[in-house]
Amino acid sequence: MTPEPRPSTAASVPPWRDARVLRVAAQVLVLVIVGVLVAFMVRNLMTAMSDRNLGFGFSFLNRSAGFDISESPIPYSSTDTYAKAFLVGLLNTLFVSFLGIILATVLGVVVGVARLSPNWLLRRITSAYVELMRNTPLLVQLVLIYFAVLLQLPSVAQTLSLPGSIFLNQRGVFVPGPQVGPNLPVWLGFVVAGIGVLVVARRFAKRREDAGRPIRGMRALGWLGLLALVAIGWIVAAPVTFDPPVRDRFNFSGGLALSPEFTALLVGLVLYTAAFIGEVVRGGIQAVRQGQLEAARALGLSEGDTLRLIVFPQALRIIVPPLTSQYLNLAKNSSLAVAIGYPDLFKVGQTMANQTGQPVPVIILIMGTYLAISLATSLVMNIYNRRVQVLER
Amino acid sequence: MTSQASPETLSPPITVVGPIAWLRQNLFSGWVNGLITVLIGAALLWLVLQVGQWAATEARWSVVTNNLRLFLIGQFPADQSWRVWLNLAIVSVLAGLSAGVYGQATRALAITLAACQLILAVLMIISPLGFLPALALSLNAAFVMGGFLVGLRGLIPRRPIAYAWLISLPISFLLLNGMGGTPLPSISTNTWGGLLLTVLIAVVGILLSFPLGVLLALGRRSQLPMVRILSTGYIEIIRGVPLVTILFMADIILPLFLPGEWRLDRVARAMGGVVLFSAAYVAENVRGGLQAIPSGQIEASQALGLSTTQMNLFIVLPQALRSVIPANVGLFISLLKDTTLVTIIGLMEVLGIGRAVLAQPESFGAYLEVYVFVAAVFFVLCYAMSQASYRLERALGVGTR
Q1: Backbone phi, then psi, for A218, in 5-degree steps?
Q2: Which chain A residues have a beta carbon less than 8 Å from that of B285?
């Protein structure tokens, strides 16, 4: 090997072959292209807006909205501001998404476990359900539930009654509504005491284990104590009572009235997303290796302990990331509410864009809000994900 | 997977013998299972009876069959509808040839295409559309079969078929859009509708978004911070907002962003929105494929002195793109389902036609019939494609090679 005199100084490399120069040049080029594109679009936007007398700015938010919103968790009237109307839309979106995520998770776990059932019929039925949901558009499901089912229910005079004071008619679904009683703090006291019992029991069990003299069932006893205290407190203090809907001459009062729009959206979102979550759960459980189960059995763990200590923690690690994207999908899909007239964020925003004649700031507002919801959801799920992941070396 | 199983991995001996034993093992293995079986069986029986009775006696399927033309091609002029069927014939022949030459997943797709056309032909005979389109569709199904047989003979090499697919795209566009001349008068896209529009938006969406998505994926993994930030920002923003908002933007804001003299029609705007939307998802799929490439490949190409462009073109992308095909088929399926959202901005794809049909006085109240039909159309298409994608995944050996 003869030592060649290598061109080590930067001066000997021409600038058009110098990697450092090229890197900067490429980035500048990209920036210029994007900049020109944006400038071109903004210039067109300015011309178009001045031609059509469209304004730009967010000052309209303080003006009176002048349109009604069919349902709202907070008091709202058409004299309120656009900002408040937007807030109502946002709250409706958050409400239906939150409820949908919880219900879809519960149903999805049931579906996922049922798809692994030893029962052939149950497996087939759930797999048919999953395929049906996954291969038809959510929007079609929503309009089917809304127009073909809920709006075809009998009129108020011929209301369908289901057991448990649930009533169905054209105006929606009426269910017993939870009423928070004055004794809530008493019950919360019971809950705190129960948690205390659990903590003490666990600490005691841990100390005995560390000392090498474990007591069997000490932890279970703690959980039993917690459950017993919570249940006794519930019976004694009755913190929440359920107020059944009462039939008036023309409608129902009391209880919780769910509009057909809300019901259709919630049911549609839950049924659709549960199919996807079911697949995620099934995949997660199946991904736990057979050897793990056999090892757990060989160690003498009971069936329940195997599931709780071996299968679920490992499955959860696989499940959480795809579950997060399903939650995000559900929140985004709630914007389909516009097709059935539920006043969610997008629907209210669309009305605002039409009324104010300022579509650009309104769409920025809508997209920004959805982005914030998505980011917040993935942030929470990422924190949870980090907690369930194994620390890798 | 080795072909010979070692003694340890032999599958357990078959213990089930006969239908009774099968029933006991799969349906009545314990009292809980027996109870579940009985309950579900009863509920299923009741449901099937109810639905069957409704579908056979009460449902007014004439609402669907009378409007079959609308569901298929929308307001496309009747005297020009041969252009759609001709287009379908080209696709049928190509699909048949591909099925013969490539086999595997394309075969499932070709079978689906032929079966769908046969089903439609049967539906057409009982609809006022009559005999001629039904004959055309049956002929198309025969084309699929013929193409398949020719392809199977190995008379046609693989490459020309790929080129033929490429050429068929502009031909399809010309056929549908027209050239303004006498043989092919221009047809306004406002008349496009039904299944035609659904499939067009989805196909255009996935095809045009593919190059954009590949660029974005490369940009996201680029060494240049500016490129990386811009690509990541685009991908994450698009993935964070619902498609409806993007379509809304494409419908109302996109025209404002373009010079006044560029007039985009509604369909083009919707397609633009779908392309911008799906590019972000394609990019994430491709990124997955890029990440799966062993770093040794990249190091080897650098050691050989390839430039970044050469490395991407000849080493990285060919491997990455092959492994993301199944994921992109999945994306195409969800895109096909998502095209229903263009009804919200007033386009007449299948669901939009369904709504228009329901607005006719003679189909008053036939919600269930119309929406069940629309759902069935999507189910057949999407289920067939998901099965094909599953086969494709195995054929390409994703994750095993």
Answers
A1: -65, -40
A2: none
- Measured in angstroms, the CA of A136 and the nearest CA of chain B are apart by 5
CA angle B396, B399, B401 (to 5 degrees): 70
Distance CA B247, CA B251 (A): 6
In angstroms, the CA B248 to CA B242 distance is: 10
Nearest CA in chain A to B383: A135
Q: Whats the size of chain A, residue-wise? A: 393
Who among A121, A137, A339 is closest to B337 (CB)? A137
Interface contact B242-A370, CB threshold 8 A: yes
Q: What is the ipTM of this complex?
A: 0.87
Asked whether residue B2 carries a pLDDT value surpassing 50, the answer given is: no
Average pLDDT over chain A, rounded to an integer: 85
What is d(CA B229, CA A337) in angstroms, rounded to the nearest whole number?
33
> Which of A152-166, A267-281, A347-361, A371-385 shows the lowest mean pLDDT across its residues?
A152-166
Is residue B141 within 8 A of residue B117, CB to CB? The reply is yes
Partners of residue B340 in chain A, C-beta under 8 Å = 137, 139-140
pLDDT at B181 over 80: no
- Whether the pLDDT of residue A292 is over 70: the answer is yes
Yes or no, beta carbons of A136 and B378 under 8 Å apart: yes
Q: Are A276 and A108 in contact (CB under 8 A)?
A: yes
CB burial class (10 A; 0-12, 13-18, 19+) of residue B291?
Answer: exposed
Cα–Cα distance list, B30 to A28, A123, A164 (Å): 71, 16, 31
Task: Check CB contact under 8 Å for B260 and A118.
Answer: no
- Residue in B247, B191, B3 with CA at minimum distance from that of residue B79: B191
Q: Which of A44, A125, A366 sits opposite B44 (nearest CB)?
A: A125
Distance CA A174, CA B374 (A): 30
CA separation for the pair A84, B9 (Å, rounded)? 66
Does A359 contact B341 at a Cβ distance shorter than 8 Å? no
How close is the nearest chain B Cα to the Cα of A190, in Å? Answer: 36
- On whether the CB atoms of residues B194 and B339 are closer than 8 A, the answer is no
Q: Give CA–CA dist A378/A327, Å, rounded.
A: 9
Contact B26/A at CB under 8 A = yes
How many C-beta atoms lie closer than 10 Å to residue B73's C-beta?
25
Between residues B28 and B249, the one the model is more confident about: B249
**What are the tens digits of pLDDT across the range A361-388?**
899 999 999 999 999 988 888 888 888 7
How far B227 CA sits from the closest chain A CA (Å)? 7
pLDDT in tens, B321-367: 888 888 888 899 999 999 999 998 889 999 999 999 999 988 888 89
Residue A390 has what pLDDT? Answer: 66
From B40, B257, B375, residue closest to A41, measured CB to CB: B257
Please tell me the distance from the alpha carbon of residue B132 to that of residue A217, in angstroms, as a whole number. 78
CA A19 → CA A16, B307, B348, distances in Å?
Answer: 8, 11, 53
Which residues of chain B lie closer than 8 angstroms to A20, CB-CB?
Answer: none
Strand-pair partners of A175: A256
User: Which among B226, B374, B383 is the nearest to A30, CB-wise?
Assistant: B226
The residue assigned the tokens 């499901």 is: A141
Q: Report pLDDT digits (tens) over A75-93.
A: 888 888 899 999 999 999 9
Task: Confirm if A292 and B201 have CB atoms less than 8 A apart.
Answer: no
- Closest partner residue to B244 (CB to CB) among A45, A151, A335 is A335
pTM of the entire structure? 0.85
* pLDDT given at position A50: 78
The predicted pLDDT at position B83 comes to 86
Distance (Å) from the C-alpha of residue B157 to the closest C-alpha of chain A? Answer: 35
Alpha carbon B37 to chain centroid, angstroms: 36
Q: How far apart are CA B163 and CA B166, in angstroms?
A: 5
> Cβ separation of B224 and A135 shorter than 8 Å?
no
